[in-house]
Write a structure and sequence with these properties.
Length: 186
């Protein structure tokens, strides 16, 4: 089973994946962590090569990662914040990858709110708490305002991340295992 968590930085994707792994025995792969492990620091890579080259490398890493996943286990891929917002023409295979992720019944767009202003305020607050990002409120607000319409228009399931990860994981498990009649896969 392959589950995707998509959404902006600060939406709670990694926190939820970690909690889901603890509670339900899932294996999670954070695409940002995978990038840093295989390639190096994301900010340094972008500064040296460009955001476009980072996006291309990120897609290549995703394609490589999914070939290693055991379909008999519960797997979660936490997509990078911009992964679903790259231009379709970036790579020949990207449009197909994006469509497969978006159309999967096990893809979840995670946001703290489905209302733009509340979402922006909460994402910026969360991102500014991450000291390693070295970001400004202006840059984070601009990023989420630009990407929010792209996220909200995706044709996948949506899930709010405005509660504790343990509660969200439980609610999500009901959606995945009970609604999908796959409870026996645990």
């Amino acid at each position: 089973m392959l589950i995707h968590f998509i959404g902006p930085g600060g939406a709670g994707k990694t926190s939820l994946a970690k909690q889901f792994a603890i509670d339900f025995g899932a294996i999670y792969y954070d695409l940002d962590e995978h990038f840093m492990l295989k390639i190096g620091d994301i900010s340094q890579f972008i500064a040296k090569y460009s955001y476009k080259e980072y996006a291309i490398k990120n897609i290549e890493l995703y394609r490589s990662l999914i070939t290693t996943i055991n379909p008999d286990l519960i797997n979660i891929i936490v997509c990078s914040s911009g992964f679903m917002t790259y231009p379709n023409e970036l790579m020949d295979s990207y449009h197909e990858i994006k469509a497969q992720i978006e159309e999967s019944s096990l893809t979840f767009l995670l946001l703290p709110s489905f209302e733009l202003e509340i979402c922006v305020k909460e994402i910026v607050r969360r991102q500014l708490q991450r000291e390693y990002l070295n970001c400004s409120s202006w840059s984070e607000e601009k990023k989420i305002r630009n990407r929010f319409p792209l996220y909200i228009n995706l044709k996948c399931q949506r899930f709010l991340t405005n509660e504790e990860p343990s509660k969200i994981a439980f609610e999500l498990s009901k959606k995945i295992f009970i609604d999908k009649n796959t409870f026996q896969t645990i």
